[in-house]
Description:
Layout: H1 3-51, H2 55-66, H3 72-77, E1 93-96, E2 103-106, H4 111-124, H5 139-148, H6 157-167, H7 171-177, H8 186-189, H9 207-210, E3 220-222, E4 225-230, H10 236-242, H11 247-253, E5 266-269, E6 281-283, H12 290-297, H13 301-307, E7 314-316, E8 321-323, E9 334-337, E10 366-370, H14 377-383, H15 388-394, E11 407-411
Antiparallel strand pairs: 1-2, 3-4, 4-5, 6-8, 7-9, 10-11
Helix pairs in contact: 1-2, 1-4, 1-7, 2-6, 5-6
Amino acid sequence: MSRSIQMKKQKLLLSICLLLLGNFIFxxxxxxxxxxxxxxxxxxxxEMLRTGVPASITLAQGIHETxxxxxxxxxxxxxxxxxxxxxxxxxxxxxxxxxxxxECFRKYNDPIDSYKDHSDFLKTGSRxxxxxxxxxxxxxxxxxxxxxxxxxxxxxxxxILIKLIKDYNLQDYTLVAxxxxxxxxxxxxxxxxxxxxxxxxxxxxxxxVNKTVTYPQGxxxxxxxxxVFVQKGTSFLSIAEDHDISLHxxxxxxxxxxxxxxxxxxxxxxxxxxxxxxxxSHTVAAGETIYDIAxxxxxxxxxxxxxxxxxxxxxxxxGQTLYLKNEAPGMPKIITALFKKPEMVEEKxxxxxxxxxxxxxxxxxxxxxxxxxxxxxxSIAKRYAVTVSDLLKWNNMDTTDLRTGQxxxxxxxxxxxxN
Length: 419
């Protein structure tokens, strides 16, 4: 056997060994990363609720900056985010070689202190202010923005964070903070990678019903739309003035009628909500109304109703799936249709004024018709073989003017048509 053939075989054998070793190291790394996530996921969620820094970004940075808790810097300083001393730091410090030998890094008594300092570092730093105008679900924008603002010198920093978020399903912890998922169980997630999120039950995202979700203070974003969370009794005029928005537009953005103050702790949008949700669907939780879901998902009420073949007074059963981007394959199961109290109806579109269920049940002798574009009172009367005057009487109306999405009551005993 020639010398060259022997050398080729040796190189091939070495390559196979390196490949096997690499796979082994990677498997160990994945397990270590999952252990790190389990250890700090709740802290990341709590910090998102406190400051608005996406939990996915916090965890990805922590994993990368510490080599999943194994780096020399984190072992001697509890510094999980590689934050240097800077001139404002008055706490303990350690020396560590980074961009230059013996640089000064912040030292913490507890890793939780490092997580809090990281959140405050971003929240109060003027160069990072633009990040908080992004949707917290936009982890790619956050990753690129951190590099743009100078958080790291590595040109591949955004790609590293994005890959970690995708590979280890870190976006799910942002969803937890937004109230759209329950915290994943450790046994479901440990050791998993690149398999997609596990099925999770959506918890009730409206805090006025379930009291389980805390939103960030100040302006943040849901579905790329600016929103604030306000307490019960907050003046709508004060909200409008604080954010330089006309009162009329504020009510319009939130599918509300004119009123003085909020009737519950609730989300108030400062921009018009989007026609599509950020996710494909929403699972109805106990106590949620259609209005609650439209607000928690940042989707226009009229779009939510249209996609799911619902009226504003319909109440889907708990556990039903509502579609947020496309038409549902069919109408969800409904508990019952409900009358709207007159004070809950605004004089445009299908807006309802309060995030709670109307009280009076539909009588058996009435059915409902939702007005579609270009329909007139005359065409609807003709469809149901009733008179225009009957329609006006049944709906307490003194004009034949209609709005798209408006709901009309029709006496079943007076019509031979079906809805």
